[in-house]
Amino acid sequence: MSIRLLPETTVNRIAAGEVVERPASAVKELVENAIDAGARHVDVVLNGGGIAYIGVTDDGVGMAREDLELCVERHATSKLPDDDLLHVAYLGFRGEALPSIGAVSRLSITSRAQGAGEAWQIGVDAGRRIPARPAALNQGTKVEVRDLFYATPARLKFLKAERTELNHALETMRRLAMANPDVGFTLSHDGRVALRVPPAPGDLFDQRLLARLSALLGADFADNTLPIDAERRRFRLTGYAGVPTYNRGNAQQQYLFVNGRAVRDKLFVGAVRGAYADFLARDRHPVLALFLESDPEDVDVNVHPAKAEVRFREAGVVRGLIVGALRNALVAAGHKASTTVGAAALGAIRRETPSAAPSFAEFHRPLGMPAGFGEPRGQAAFGYADEPSARVETAPPAAAPDAPAPVEASYPLGAARGQLHETYIISQTEDGIVIVDQHAAHERLVYERMKRALTGQGVARQLLLLPEVVELDPAAADRLGERAAELAELGLAIEPFGPGAVVVREAPALLGDCDIRGLVRDLADDLAELDEALSLKERLEDVCSTMACHGSVRAGRRLTVAEMNALMREMEATPHSGQCNHGRPTYVELKLRDIERLFGRR
Predict the structure, then answer these.
(1) What is the DSSP string of 351-396?
(2) Domains of the chain
């Protein structure tokens, strides 16, 4: 079989298969070009999910006729002035997007350069170029893509429903808008506006960034996230990370940007998982948006055809920076819990409806009086029966017989006023009330004590009566051997045992009688995928969590007022006490204004 050169049209269609996977890919490439051109407003119009039509209009610097004719040539770009792939300062730089899109669709580009007296238009129809001609347009560029993939019917068959393709394009626009808060974006589909975000307001960039993230991720984002700002070597990490109780059932609202470019990176996923391991159940995921800045030489953005993945020169430094920054922010947050917890509680109260309307007599009965008020029926008729379920432990008066104990302003969780159903503590704050789940709160406190003990004394080990030899592939055994010192700190003592095997001599005492072989194999898999021994840490944390759960104050135990206040004071002084070990809130705070709304007083 002889070797021959492929026709240019076929080459462009092959490139299109790498760069343009679906309409969202074309939207991403075109909008990135608009941002690189200095646009302040970018308008995107889609029809048929972007399959029938994509239009991207910007007010950037535009292109002269000569540049317009070159922009549809393969490997033609203005974004590598020194031809140095190690110093990429723009989003789009390959010079393949426009010719690739033109190879599989009907492409039209109209542009007017800054200061030019007229605009020019050029077209590409399934790889066939249409000569440039004069056109009418204000300063900027307008790119129109019609009948995407009509020249490659096989690719067209693999596209999803219009709604699905629209959602992918919408998510692409959201990511681009997050990374560029100074640019306004609009996305319309079939004549309806699906996304509109004007340039974010604010004098400082951090203010504009937070405003943009709140506009895209919801109004609760600003109130329930923690600012991140950390540096390590030549890397800087900024952004916002949600408190543990502000979480989701999937990781779709986790965003990482590297030098302004939205990327998907397994290192980032593993780092976030490790940082939140103590605070969330396995099936819950925090909400966060992180921005990593580095010297271009320290990151390779030329790994993926669509530039969706990156490779770091010092991956361990980046991972340590992300984990350390997130954990420090969570520690600094103290007992803070999500404000959406209280909002959800108020929403549940508002949804409650009485099963039957009260009678006239019941409606006019004095508040708090039982049925049959006025009849001589004894104390039980007035709600003072001695059943445990009806008893409420209350605080004794301090200042006067009828005055409650004063609330100290320095106590964020307030002063205990009573205990309901021997499970929930009711506390009064300066501007509302707090309801504390005594078991969940104490579980977190006990867990944090155990962690501090482990940190201070090291993980207790147990010597195996018979050392366990675990057979692995040579690469996995080498990975474990390189991390032997780190595993020893976690209580697992391993040594190389010939090619492709390790021997385990000691294991963490907390694990008891566990499957050592399975544990070691899981550790090897973790090191291969995430570069961290998560399995062992998670198992230790699970054991500590279980022990904390069984060693904490149970629901149904009556507490004195002193015990209630002591529990809340320790919560205020303990990091992460706003959620239990599984990510559930330990308390709900209701502001007085919200309670007044429930009763129509506001």
Answers:
(1) H---SSPPPHHHHTSPTTPPTTTTS---GGGGT----GGG--EEPP
(2) 8-197 (3.30.565.10), 218-333 (3.30.230.10), 383-602 (3.30.1540.20)
Query: What tokens were used for 387?
Result: 């059943």
Please, what is the Cα angle at 580 between 563 and 213, to 5 degrees? Answer: 125
Structure confidence at residue 542 (pLDDT): 58
The token pair that represents 113 in the structure block:
């350069």
Q: Determine what percent of the chain falls in helix, strand and coil, rounding each to the nearest 5.
A: 40, 25, 40
Residues 6+ apart with CB under 8 A from 541: 277, 278
Q: Is 4 exposed, middle or buried (0-12, 13-18, 19+ CB in 10 A)?
A: exposed
**577 neighbors 441 (Cβ within 8 angstroms):** yes
Read off the pTM.
0.68
- The phi and psi torsions of 548 (rounded to 5 degrees) equal -65, -40
Encoding tokens for residue 287?
Answer: 């909400």
Name residue 504's beta-bridge partners. 468, 494
Mean pLDDT per 10-residue segment, the chain (602 residues):
77 69 92 92 96 96 91 76 62 70 92 92 92 92 94 84 94 95 96 95 92 92 92 92 86 91 84 83 86 86 66 86 90 65 57 46 42 40 37 47 56 89 90 90 80 64 87 88 80 86 85 79 76 61 60 74 91 82 81 83 76
Dihedral sign (CA 113, 117, 119, 120): negative
- Residue 253's identity, in one-letter code, is Q
Side-chain half-sphere CA neighbours of 482 within 13 A: 12
Q: How many CB atoms lie within 10 A of CB 17?
A: 17
Which residues are CB-neighbours of 570 under 8 A, at least 6 positions away? 445, 577
Residue 299: enclosing H or E segment and its boundaries? strand 299-300
Inter-CA distances, 518 with 311, 404, 466, 511, Å: 31, 58, 16, 13
Residue appearing with tokens 């709600």: 383
- Asked whether the beta carbons of 588 and 342 are under 8 A apart, the reply is yes
